[in-house]
Amino acid sequence: MTIELDCRNIDCPGPVMKTKQAIEEQGATSIKIIVDNDAAVENVTRFLNFHDFEVSVESSGRVSTIEGRGSRVQIKKTGSLEKQMETCTLDSNKQQPGHKIMVLIGASTIGRGDDGLGAKLMTNFLKTLGEMGSDLWRIAFVNDGVKLTVNGSSVLTVLEELEKEHTDILVCGACLTHFDLLDQKAVGDTTNMLDIVTSMQLADKVINL
Predict the structure, then answer these.
(1) Model's pTM, two decimal places?
(2) Which of 8, 140, 109, 157 is nearest to 68 (CA)?
(3) How far apart are CA 171 and CA 151, in angstroms?
(4) How far apart are CA 66 and CA 204, in angstroms?
(5) Which of 56, 90, 160, 162 counts the highest number of beta carbons within 10 A?
(6) Mean pLDDT in runs of 10 for the chain (209 residues)?
(7) Does 193 lie in the same domain as 132?
(8) Which domain holds residue 22?
């Protein structure tokens, strides 16, 4: 069954939700999806790859919804849908900790009063997170927090090391787009609000900064 979805001018996580609905409720095995921003392309592609779809992307550049040009994501079913509907990208070979802690970071600083001090506190916090060991499961960056994941960030090396130690790093694609930083993301997976909410549901504990 082939379905075509026009997901232009739909806020995150709308394109992923419509794709998920087409697969689960309409039984789609082949889908054509038109989206209007790079973050949506990454989010839909990652969602489909996780669920064993073969994905190809044709892009006509940055989309204008007025002109109706867009990136087309065309998928073909190649595997079973009998997989747990966890939308975040997880390598099945990764170590699964017994106690899953998720950290949600919504700013590039900690606390209020002095941004310079707040930036130092955030750096120290991220450097210390590794002390959680395998309990540290995922770190999600939203709003101003996504600036910590781009080229030039003072904590980029720290985040790369955490990712190397099997901590999932999720970066809000809509937030990167808002700050015009999508092309500058240097660590983690571009994600959407469905991924983040699902992660919060699956986590044993959520720490919100």
Answers:
(1) 0.71
(2) 8
(3) 14
(4) 44
(5) 162
(6) 82 85 81 85 83 79 38 57 42 55 96 92 94 94 97 95 94 94 95 91 94
(7) yes
(8) 2-77
